[in-house]
Write a structure and sequence with these properties.
heterodimer, A: mainly alpha, Arp2/3 complex 21 kDa subunit ARPC3, two-stranded antiparallel ribbon, 8 helices, 66% helix, globular, B: alpha+beta, Thrombin, subunit H, six-stranded antiparallel barrel
Chain lengths: 191, 280
């Protein structure tokens, strides 16, 4: 996989997720682009590259998202997205053989699956962190279920934008450098 | 791969006091990304301005000035009441409080995807410091500047969302007359509190009256009473839900209400900061 291209796409979409994408805000939810990039890579890259890519971009999300601790100070909690996205990528790798990877809808479905799995890890880590003194949970106590439901809605929004995003990313296929000519071989095999 | 994941896993369960360094790392990482975020925000603002009906600019200015003045009246009344309490306590000369706030307009650079912390493009270089209240529309309280504050950025902790803890507020009628004090607890994006059932809730607003906030924050509009009902298991008390006047992250430009550096209250705060820093 072309790491320079992946890095550029990941950083650009991370910035857009926070600054521009709220233009599509519906209520308190708006779609995210970065999960689409991770899933697109996870569908085509080698297993190792897919996992590293998800982990590093998850780490970037963690470092980009200030969390409040008691006393109204902000810190970055490393892990909820880094490990969540890693777990999500493992889930996508497990199902990618049964997906029609070239179909943009497959990227959308895989993005939804990816973010659902990531939310499980996110919720687990924050539940553990809730036992630590001074931690401010990202949900009102007793409403963790609502927080997960909210993330599921965000996952659905992200899946929706992942479809056109995957199409745009696929236009750059000669530069992605996915292994074994998987992409081009698939293209030739298709009618 | 798995070694790196294990290290991050350990970091994920470290207590907050051991993660102070991550704020600095995140800030450094975002230095080259701020211009891009600024462009993204500008594009968003151009495509979809703040989602509310916008009157003409001159009317908007007058409305904001009116709201500011209403906030000022409420703040002065709260301060007046405190001064009267001090007089009643035979304090000979109550010290003058709070100078006028110095507004600092700031552009929103980013909003946490869960409606959390807001990143602004103003920092210590512009006079911003931790604890400064942040408003929109003249006097609608959005949140408070959190520490650490960068040279040209700061992060705002929304008052109405998670983990802010309780906040003391004052119910005020439309003429600004002070009514009951209420302790509000954040509940899923709104506030909840209990008051005496004798308090008239017709056309009231809820404004900040909390001595743990700076003087420039006193009297700011927290929200309106959205609903009320008899408090379960507490006769003669009414449970109210307060809907926030400002939705965190919905505005593209916010105003930081900085204390005038020459005011006595700011001098007091600076002195307090110095003594805290020098404390063993």
């Amino acid at each position: 996989m072309n790491w320079l291209l992946f890095g550029l796409a990941g950083v650009l979409t991370t910035v857009l997720d926070q600054s521009f994408m709220p233009v599509l805000r519906i209520g308190e939810h708006w779609p995210l682009l970065t999960p689409g990039v991770v899933v697109f890579a996870a569908l085509w890259a080698s297993r190792s590259s897919a996992l590293w890519g998800a982990f590093l971009l998850g780490l970037l999300q963690d470092l980009s998202r200030p969390e409040v601790v008691e006393g109204a100070r902000t810190i970055r909690v490393l892990g909820p997205d880094a490990l969540g996205w890693l777990f999500g990528a493992v889930g996508v790798l497990a199902v990618r053989r049964v997906l029609l990877r070239r179909h943009p809808l497959a990227v959308g479905a895989a993005t939804f699956w990816f973010l659902l799995l990531a939310s499980v890890v996110w919720g687990g880590i924050w539940t553990i962190r809730g036992l630590l003194p001074g931690t401010v949970l990202p949900w009102t106590p007793g409403e963790a279920g609502e927080a997960l439901a909210s993330r599921a809605i965000t996952a659905a929004c992200a899946a929706a934008v992942a479809v056109p995003l995957a199409w745009m990313l696929s236009l750059l296929r000669p530069w992605w450098g996915f292994p074994g000519g998987a992409w081009t071989a698939g293209r030739r095999a298709s009618p | 791969m798995w070694i790196a994941a294990s290290l991050v896993g350990v970091c994920a369960i470290l207590p907050p006091r051991w993660l102070g360094w991550t704020g600095e790392v995140g800030a450094i990482l975002w230095i080259p990304l701020h211009p891009l975020a600024h462009a993204g925000t500008a594009a968003r603002e151009w495509l979809r301005p703040a989602a509310r009906e916008m009157p003409p600019a001159d009317v908007l200015t007058l409305l904001e000035e009116r709201q500011e003045l209403l906030g000022l009246v409420a703040r002065l009344r709260i301060e007046l009441e405190r001064a009267q309490e001090e007089i009643a306590a035979l304090q000979a000369e109550p010290a003058p409080r709070a100078g006028d706030p110095r507004p600092i307009a700031a552009t929103v650079l980013g909003v946490g995807s869960d409606g959390g912390v807001i990143r602004l493009n103003r920092g210590t270089r512009h006079g911003v410091s931790a604890g400064d209240p942040v408003v929109e529309g003249g006097d609608r309280l959005v949140g408070v500047v959190a520490a650490p504050v960068g040279a040209s950025w700061c992060e705002v902790f929304p008052a109405s969302t998670r983990g802010g803890g309780s906040i003391r507020a004052r119910i005020v009628d439309r003429d600004g007359a002070l009514r009951s004090l209420v302790l509000l607890e954040p509940r899923g994006g709104s506030w909840q509190g209990e008051i005496d059932e004798s308090v008239d809730l017709t056309e009231v607003a809820v404004r900040l009256d909390d001595p743990t906030w700076t003087s420039t924050a006193q009297g700011l509009l927290i929200g309106e009473v959205a609903s009320s009902r008899a408090a379960p298991a507490r006769p003669l008390r009414v449970e109210i839900v307060v809907r926030p006047a400002a939705i965190a992250g919905s505005a593209d430009t916010l105003v930081i209400r900085r204390l005038d550096p020459t005011s006595p209250a700011e001098a007091d705060r600076s002195e307090l900061d110095r003594s805290e820093r020098n404390a063993p």
